[in-house]
User: What shape does this take?
Amino acid sequence: MNAVSIHITGIVQGVGFRPWVWKTATELGLTGSVQNNFDGVRIELFGDSAPFLEKLENDPPPLARIDCISVSEIEGETPRDFTIRLSEDCGEALQRISPDIAICGDCRRELFDSTDRRFRYPFINCVNCGPRFSIIENLPYDRPQTSMRDFELCSECRSEYKNPANRRYHAQPVCCPECGPKIEPENWEKIWLDSMAQGKIVAVKGIGGFHLACDALNPDAVKKLRKRKGRESKPFALMVPDLEWVKTVCEVSAEEEKLLLSRERPIVLLKILKEVGTVRRIVRGAFVESTLSLEEIAPGLNTLGVMLPYSPMHEIMFDLFPHPAVMTSANYSTEPMIHTNEKARKKLGEIADVFITHNRGIINRCDDPVCAVHGTQTIVIRPGRGIAPVSMPIDSDACVLAFGADMKNTFALAHHGQVTLHPYIGDLENPETQAILEQAIQRELGCFKLTPDLIVHDLHPDYFSTRIAQTFAQKLRVKSRAVQHHHAHLVGTFSEKAVGFSFDGTGYGTDGTIWGGEVLLYDSTDFKRAFYLRPFALPGGEMAVKNPQRVAVSLMRQIDEASLRRFERDEGVASTLKLLESGINCPMTSSMGRLFDAVSCLLGICETPTFDGEAAMRLEAAADETECGDLAFSIQGGQIDWRPMIRDLIDEMEQGVSAPVLAARFHNTLAEIVYCCGAALAKKQGRIPWVFSGGVFQNRLLVERIENVADGEFELVFSTYPTDSGIALGQAVIGAEKWVSK
Ligand code: ZN
Ligand code: ZN
Ligand code: FE
Assistant: This one.
């Protein structure tokens, strides 16, 4: 009789791995044992282990991520049965916190099975699905350490929890209508249905916080929500009943379909169809054909953020009311999402007509994640519920805490050979958000009982994140180091030697100016600024972000005074020129994001953006994708000179070339600039990969154009986390590899 010991590492604890092993081994007639240990799961198998290993490789438990399987022969007496042994006592160092997981197929079937005891129970879950991160207060992940501790298991749930053959074996949040959480008010289903039909705005408590919801087919309701929330034109995300719905409004590729249906259930940014289909709508019990009022939902954009129901409560909501609904995080502009019943009542009274809440506490708030698909690659624009916390292996065992950037902040913690990115926290200019960052970090360090070897923050001396990091470093008596923003963007994407294109709105440079159009030759410990966008002044500093005309004037002034004549009569132009002449509060920048803003403004596409990135998004949306032409540019002494490009743009505009054509030529020209910079460096450096990160690379058209000019010839690596939410990843890796000795 042969016997083997199998050791598996990866995400294998708290994901139903042991019961899966028990069930599989028992079915194959094998005996032995399975046990969690320090860095994974150890299995001892007696009998023919080949079919077991085959199943492990081809059909592992759905939530597991297997990094490594090692098998060795062992000797010993053959046991009589297969047992699940207690975990080796090894501390909790290697546990990872799982993100919340969308309802699984099995639970969904039970939810709508009238004979099941959890029929239409909005908190149904199992070992493969349900809340995790949002309810965890401490580790190890056990019910008393979660907000489910308030609900004592009934005898039926308890026996399911204890039975290794049951799919709720050791599912910590297991519950049922007898013993589990409840929705308030009790007749919520009717209230939801009536409110939607009457165009009301409903505050709904979900998994990671409250949403504000209304019927997306009712333009008056959407308008009302915009007005009450004080949100001018920032697009709203939709939750739709099913895929069929999505396809009447958006183009959906196979990859996008997979992402929409994935257990992360993110908001996916999809391209809106040229001709949006009509959709069926129920009015007083009868179906009526109607169209989605996109001008209210995503004004001026060619993409729409869509997600499918992800919690059992959503499943019931959309079973009752099979319409698309606006589902937007419940907050006022820059404030964090509301997640407690008390706060919702206090703060949402002016926005919501109706409240639907429940009594399962949300310990860790968590916004919905936002993703997009570029070709075959998924990019994460906001790492929220379902996606984060997300861990990836790194080449160091150091414990490093990285504080990220101020915009779209989140932090990362590296320890025991992995770095974990925490879910999106928000913009730190809001003091409440700063407090949330501090609490979240304290909770995470507490969970793992860790003190970092090193704290890392952005190079910007005035960032809130920098100050908070330094305070933490003092309190914990830990050394701290600063990392340049664009270097962090790139190392978070690819940490070996490469040519990096780090294009974004703003980041503090080593020379004290604002960077943002950077081509760096870099590795995980150092970088050289090889090329950069020719610097220009930002009249009024950060104010220029909200007013692209100021940037446009600044660019034109560098070309020649004659170009300015177009603006002659404008008062704003005169005051901007005065500001530029005085030089007061006109910091210099090489920002690619601001160049996009200025071009969008010059072409008359977006002159007054109301949210971050709007001018660039509209420029991309406006571009005529069939256009292949380009504009002039020059590269000299490391400087990418945009002046010939802007001059060309204005000349052509005056000759009557349309804005969509010129918007496309602008994108095409940037792709050529990328190629020229990369090829120049390749001459000296050889064929090292080209890496792309920074907020600008959310732009799908730009990515496509770069692939067109350079793919096949060079290896292109586009960031999965291109926004500033990915900064902490790069900071942590640089911290571990540069400053902590191995
Ligand atoms: Zn389930
Ligand atoms: Zn129960
Ligand atoms: Fe950035």
About this structure: Residues 659-685 form the longest helix (27 residues). DSSP finds 23 helices and 32 strands in the chain. The first strand starts at residue 3 and ends at 11. The domain at 184-358 is CATH 3.90.870.10 (DHBP synthase).
